[in-house]
């Protein structure tokens, strides 16, 4: 009886070891791309997955939050993450910088600051200093998104300290969805509105938005970049995929369109991006420049054969 118990324990341990080894081998034999829950990173992830899959490489995506994605790359559990926003993630990157490689800045000139519709801009509201001149048209309100957002904190501080003479203004807090619904309604009705805006985002595809200038530097870092992170050993494991990650640079206007389709129209990310690729082969050729498919052939040639 005791012997049977021992053998049962040995069997269970063996099964667990085999399972663990299989998991590790699976990790070694496929490229894992982290995917987070916002349209921009879903679009970029789809682009990388489509390109790698079409040229013969095994790929899977792993749906995780932003912190897990960064740490996953650092611990070599995730191979590619294209959503590291800087300087927002500056502190995180400082902790993991010795364990990751920045393969590329995949998007630059991203922006997060207060904006107005172009028809308001054309009437003379081009900086934060101009808001007070037209306070009655704005009803002295600024739509800053959820409480606790950077826009909420920054503009409340401006009000509290009467920066730009905004002391008698108020911030309006609501969910992201409700804020964007208010923006949509106001623009459709040609009403004056000042709201938190950012790009890339579908709002830039739908509307002509102008971002306010900030001479007092309320917003220390309104301009952001987005990095592609890979593990330190990624180049040695997947040299051709590594080349691709360095080539994958995204135009912000293209991202706005993808985000509109995915985030606003709820279309499938891979279908959206693949359709775009079929109509923009020159850009795909640039992304695949110098890359070899898994069979050793030119990647762009193989891509065309598989679409």
Automatic annotation (TrEMBL):
Residues 30-279 form the ABC-type glycine betaine transport system substrate-binding domain. GO terms for molecular function: transmembrane transporter activity. Transmembrane segments: none annotated. One of its GO terms (cellular component) is ATP-binding cassette (ABC) transporter complex. This is Glycine/betaine ABC transporter substrate-binding protein.
């Amino acid at each position: 009886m005791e012997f049977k118990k021992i053998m049962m324990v040995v069997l269970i341990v063996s099964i667990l070891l085999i399972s663990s080894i299989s998991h590790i081998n699976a990790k070694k034999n496929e490229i894992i791309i982290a995917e987070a829950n916002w349209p921009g990173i879903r679009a970029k992830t789809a682009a990388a997955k489509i390109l790698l899959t079409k040229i013969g490489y095994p790929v899977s995506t792993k749906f995780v939050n932003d912190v897990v994605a960064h740490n996953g790359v650092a611990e070599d559990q995730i191979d590619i993450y294209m959503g590291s926003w800087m300087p927002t993630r500056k502190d995180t990157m400082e902790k993991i910088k010795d364990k990751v490689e920045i393969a590329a800045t995949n998007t630059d000139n991203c922006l997060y600051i207060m904006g107005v519709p172009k028809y308001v801009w054309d009437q003379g509201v081009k900086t934060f200093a101009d808001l007070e001149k037209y306070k009655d048209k704005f009803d002295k309100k600024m739509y800053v998104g959820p409480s606790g957002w950077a826009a909420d904190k920054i503009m409340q501080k401006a009000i509290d300290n009467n920066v730009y003479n905004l002391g008698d203004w108020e911030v309006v807090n609501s969910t992201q969805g409700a804020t964007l619904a208010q923006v949509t309604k106001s623009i459709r009705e040609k009403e004056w509105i000042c709201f938190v805006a950012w790009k890339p985002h579908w709002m830039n595809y739908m509307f002509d938005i102008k971002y306010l200038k900030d001479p007092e530097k309320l917003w220390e870092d309104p301009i952001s970049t987005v990095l592609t992170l890979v593990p330190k050993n990624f180049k040695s494991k997947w040299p051709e995929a590594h080349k691709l990650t360095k080539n994958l640079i995204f135009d912000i206007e293209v991202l706005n369109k993808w985000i509109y389709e995915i985030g606003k129209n709820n279309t499938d990310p891979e279908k959206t991006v693949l359709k775009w690729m079929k109509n923009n082969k020159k850009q795909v050729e640039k992304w695949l420049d110098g890359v070899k498919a898994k069979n050793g052939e030119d990647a762009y040639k193989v891509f065309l054969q598989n679409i």
